């Protein structure tokens, strides 16, 4: 499907009127020009597809990522230069300035950070109420490869909702719909119709939960009993705009909410622009409904062009400023979208469509041992079970099963309950 989709739209290198990415669109982890290019930082020890991180690896990453001034580049040079992030905690102060991409001005920042957390930081981190196990990290099995390929990858993705959707997002089996916060009645109606049609066709719908087009497409997706995916510019505990509280709760219950902003993080204007790159990295195609020339939706369009993704645009009233930016995309080579049915016919059934699931299951090759192991564990958990019950059912030692169960919990497939019990997400 990915090759088919890309075949219907000009490659990124030859797109007419291709827009440069806005210079101010900086996300988490941007560190300036020193050291390695930020996109290249996705390789090495933190690469997607490598052996999944164990608990302590995840905790060290979470800890160091809280240090001011550290992003992908410096975390990677820290890991490489010290032989691991755990060893970096014991590095003498003078050693930091010698690492690639670091400078002397960061040393006092790191020293204050290490002094705050003390000699046993992981124990203290585990006691921190803000440490949520529902965070996807670069070393996790379902971390999307397209996220690591971004110029400014996030350090983590905090999430709420249906963890099973991550396997679809990792394969870009979703559609992103974006647009202005001040749409026309036609734009609102089209966005809602798109959300409904995509949901009924089995496609997860990704948007930003903002005012206007974002809210309308999420509402349509919910009305179609679909799987909305909201990418926030705030931490998960914040609601913006405030009157979207009920909508955000519904998306978090029936779909998935995600944010690169950790719990308690301050909200900055650039956070909302930065999320546009995440929207596109999770999608197989991007639809712009309506937007003015200065809209953040144009950032999403630019990222889609950069990655060679299909870009569809709903034509708007030529006399409306709110549609001027999106109409110009049509002049630059985007595909006009006149009806939601056209998009659904082009995409075909989505990964959540019943017929698609049956065909995919019939054609899927036999599962690998790791996959079979996960399936047996998930089947044993069922609607909820204790470690002892799972051990008796599978006839395996509890100590052996505990490691695998905790890994499934970290990956968002299981939810921990009191008394060493688990429940499927």
Summarize the structure.
The protein has 425 residues and is of the alpha/beta class. The chain contains 20 helices and twelve strands.
Structural class: alpha/beta
Q: Helicity level, as a percent range?
A: 40-55%
Major β-sheet annotation:
9 strands, mixed
Cα-based radius of gyration, to the nearest Å: 22 Å
Model regions low in confidence, pLDDT < 50 over at least 5 residues: 1-49, 356-370
Name the shape in a single word: globular
Q: What's the arrangement of strands in the largest beta sheet?
A: 1-2-6-5-4-3-7-8-9
Helix count, per DSSP?
20
How many angstroms separate the termini? 28 Å
The overall pLDDT average reads: 81
**Amount of beta strand:** 5-15%
Number of strands: 12
Topology:
Layout: H1 2-7, H2 55-64, H3 72-82, H4 85-88, H5 93-96, H6 107-117, H7 121-127, E1 135-136, H8 145-148, E2 157-161, H9 165-170, E3 175-178, H10 185-200, E4 205-207, H11 213-223, E5 228-231, H12 245-254, E6 256-259, H13 269-281, E7 285-288, H14 297-306, E8 311-313, H15 324-331, E9 335-336, H16 340-347, H17 354-363, H18 369-381, E10 385-386, H19 387-394, H20 398-410, E11 414-417, E12 421-424
